[in-house]
Design goal:
The protein has about 160 residues and is α+β, with helices and mostly antiparallel strands. The chain is built from three helices and six strands, in the order H-E-E-E-E-H-E-E-H. It has a single domain, classed as Aspartate Aminotransferase, domain 1 (Alpha-Beta Complex), CATH 3.90.1150.30. The protein has a six-stranded antiparallel beta sheet, with helices on one face. Strand 1 and strand 2 form a beta hairpin. The termini are close together.
Length: about 160
């Protein structure tokens, strides 16, 4: 499935770490729906993120499943995480083609520390989904991040 263009302007974000979304924050129901998706993600370990503020849900692979390149991870075997409100954005590591499409189509932007020591150059902020259609797109991006972390081929976009 090609990555659609995200409607509207990109939200304002902080310039440094921690990178946070400052506007276009999802309402509590939309965030709860995304949180339910992340916390029920199959075949991964959900636990507090090692690289994000308190309350951030991290998605981790077991050591055996983490067969992707070192650049496919945020820290350890964490490949994505969801920030709590009042932010709601996600960070993940995407393969080059998917990452480029996500940026070009308005779904996210590079992490300000991407490429610095201990931060994958592929690290990307994905804007908080505002509705069910956007949750579907963001879910497909999480799948791409997981596949990359598992060592699989990138999903077409």
């Amino acid at each position: 499935m090609p990555l659609p263009i995200r409607a509207g302007a990109r939200p304002a974000t902080t310039d440094g770490a921690p990178q946070s979304q400052l506007e276009q924050i999802p309402d509590a129901a939309n965030h709860a729906a995304m949180h339910a998706i992340v916390t029920a993600w199959p075949n991964v370990i959900q636990r507090p993120s090692q690289r994000a503020p308190h309350g951030t849900v991290g998605l981790f692979l077991s050591d055996e499943a983490a067969q992707g390149p070192r650049e496919a991870f945020l820290l350890g075997t964490e490949f994505a995480h969801l920030h709590p409100l009042p932010d709601g954005s996600l960070h993940m590591v995407l393969p080059t083609g998917v990452r480029r499409a996500a940026i070009e189509n308005g779904w996210g932007l590079p992490h300000p520390l991407a490429g610095r020591p201990s931060v994958s150059p592929q690290t990307l902020m994905i804007f908080a989904p505002r509705d069910a259609a956007e949750r579907t797109v963001v879910t497909s991006l999480i799948r791409a991040a997981e596949l990359y972390a598992r060592g699989g081929d990138a999903l077409p976009v």
